[in-house]
Amino acid sequence: MHSWTDILNFAEKTTARVGQQLLADFGQAQASEKADGSLVTQSDQWADGELRQAIADAFPSHGVLSEEGAHIFPANDWCWIIDPIDGTTNFTRGIPIWGISLGLLYQGTPVFGQVYFPPLQQSFHGFWYGDSGLSGPAGAFLNHQPIHVSVDAPSNNHFFSLCARSTAIMKQPFPCKIRMLGVATYNLLTVATGVSLGAVEATPKIWDIASVWAIVQAAGAAWTPLASQPIFPLQIGEDYSRHPFPTLVTSRSDLIATFKPLVEVVVR
Fold first, then answer.
1. Helices (H), the chain
2. Residue 36's pLDDT is what?
């Protein structure tokens, strides 16, 4: 296995290099609609190719699963999951919240994540080993500074983040102010930084959540799948192009009971 330092350095340098080029295309790229209704640009496809090639060069024994490329989970013990531009709609419309997402899985479960948001110059990473048997550096970080969830109780002065497909939540009384950012990774990372007390994603794909699985839990957040089946470990040979993984993230496990009954409407 490569050292965790090698993995972190690779992720940061590669996303910074790709992000520099994407900034030149930011707000100017023309998008087309994919079969699932999401947008794709030539910038997505270029970034995907650059990231996949960089992984192949640096870690030839590792597998890759990508939003814009291979959707079949491979048999490799180590596998990277790529989202070359998380927030393509924001990217095409000139809204400066979009990022490049890399999650590293061991035997089907994320153990490291890194997400870089070029317009904001924000780089998140984290390590979360669960029951993998691995060990190494711990914690979640923003620009190499430790981040932690909030310990506050819900109030009208605190935030809860929605995705575009979870707006039905707003038809009922809610204990926090609602925010919608348009980027799944950033949405969930607001909990890791203590900005929000919770966040929900109604229909995220695996490339929307693989990187932040490690980061938000390393920051102290509780991750609650809203579907009946667990998300990880991923299954070898499975096609993940159409699988949604509705998810609730809360700043503390005791807030699951507060927020889960309110957000379950997104999966009904």
1. 4-25, 42-58, 88-93, 184-192, 206-218, 256-263
2. 58
Q: What's the pTM? A: 0.94
In this structure, CATH architecture of domain 4-146: 2-Layer Sandwich (3.30)
**Burial degree of 231 (CB within 10 A; 0-12, 13-18, 19+):** buried
Mean pLDDT of the chain: 94
Q: 181 near 97, Cβ under 8 Å?
A: yes
Query: Could you tell me the residue ranges of all domains in the chain?
Result: 4-146, 159-267
**pLDDT for position 32:** 62
Question: Comparing 4-146 with 159-267, is the CATH topology the same?
Answer: no
Q: Could you identify the residue written with the tokens 């910038």?
A: 43
Fold exhibited by the domain 159-267: D-Maltodextrin-Binding Protein; domain 2 (3.40.190)
pLDDT band at 38 (very low <50, low <70, confident <90, very high): low
- Do 104 and 7 form a contact (C-beta atoms < 8 A)? yes
User: Are 50 and 18 contacting, i.e. CB atoms less than 8 angstroms apart?
Assistant: yes
**Residue 27: predicted pLDDT:** 80
Q: Helix/strand/coil (H, E, C) string of 25-85?
A: HCCCCCEEECCCCCEEEHHHHHHHHHHHHHHHHHCCCCEEEECCCCCECCCCCEEEEEEEE
Per-residue model confidence as pLDDT tens digits over 150-179: 999 999 999 999 999 999 898 889 999 999
